[in-house]
Design a protein that fits this description.
Structural class: mainly alpha
Largest sheet: 2 strands, antiparallel
Number of strands: 2
Mean pLDDT: 84
Strand order of the largest sheet: 1-2
Order of helices and strands: HHHHEHHEHH
Helix content: over 70%
Shape: globular
């Protein structure tokens, strides 16, 4: 009887993360259908829901020690629809389709590059699970790219603004490049919420929650945009820091060489 209970419990552990993954797949598929029907705001909310489920399935799998190769592959396949195809179609129908008719090929090419680079990003992530630094993502995560598009739709609708096709065409290329680049983005996986935190940390969370509740269509877009921008800024800062370090080493070697060189009096 104990073995039977253990087997049932083990099966339940593996089913639970897959259930969250399946719910994320459903949300992504619903976002795709809503975008095709022209209900862009509903599609945006569905992509946000898919991102929430994607976050939960990983957390639940790690919490229950139910991380498997099957779960990782299933999660990536679902992410391709929710964060690759659905946001690309949403962006195309919401903004890129309004490009001039003689440049219509650029519209669907922009959406295609977004979907293709999302697939490449997911494939690269799966092949480097064991060697990558858990503190950082190499390349922009696909959920962040999808969330930027989804929150932008909500932001524009809240302000009654029409999307600028050329701006979002450039943005689609930039997002596609960031996903396959070597630019590092903070992952947040090393943040342990079970540890004790200072009161300032709790106040900060309350402040963020209050801002989101007060401006649900504007603050999330600002946060996601800041996250997408922090990667290139972090890389630029690290590059300049490395240059300063190399310059300091060269100057130190020159000073040592000058100090070791015999003077004319010693000769």
């Amino acid at each position: 009887m104990s073995r039977l209970k253990e087997t049932v419990a083990r099966r339940g552990v593996y089913v639970l993360p897959s259930l969250f993954t399946s719910m994320g797949l459903f949300a992504g598929f619903y976002a795709l259908i809503a975008a095709i029907q022209g209900r862009f705001e509903l599609a945006a909310w569905a992509i946000i829901a898919a991102a929430v489920f994607d976050m939960l399935d990983g957390r639940v799998a790690r919490l229950l020690h139910a991380e498997t190769a099957f779960g990782a592959e299933y999660d990536s396949l679902c992410d391709m629809l929710s964060f690759g195809i659905a946001p690309a179609v949403l962006l195309y129908l919401w903004a890129l389709v309004h490009l001039p008719s003689d440049l219509h090929k650029l519209a669907w090419l922009g959406a295609f590059f977004l979907a293709a680079c999302a697939a490449l990003r997911l494939a690269r992530f799966n092949t480097r699970l064991d060697v990558q630094d858990k503190r950082y993502f190499q390349g922009l995560p696909t959920p962040a790219s999808a969330l930027l598009i989804a929150t932008a739709v909500l932001f524009y609708n809240d302000l009654n603004l029409d999307p600028q096709p050329w701006l979002w065409f450039v943005a689609s290329l930039l997002l596609a490049w960031l996903m396959v680049s070597n630019v590092r983005f903070v992952s947040g996986k090393d943040l342990d919420l079970r540890k004790r935190r200072t009161s300032g940390f709790i106040i900060g969370l309350i402040l963020i929650g209050g801002l989101v509740m007060a401006f649900p269509y504007r603050v999330p877009f600002a946060f996601i945009l800041a996250y997408c921008m922090h990667g290139p800024m972090l890389s630029l800062w690290q590059h300049r820091r490395l240059q300063h370090y190399r310059m300091a080493r060269r100057l130190a070697r020159r000073h040592r060489a000058a100090a070791d060189k015999p003077s004319g009096d010693d000769a």
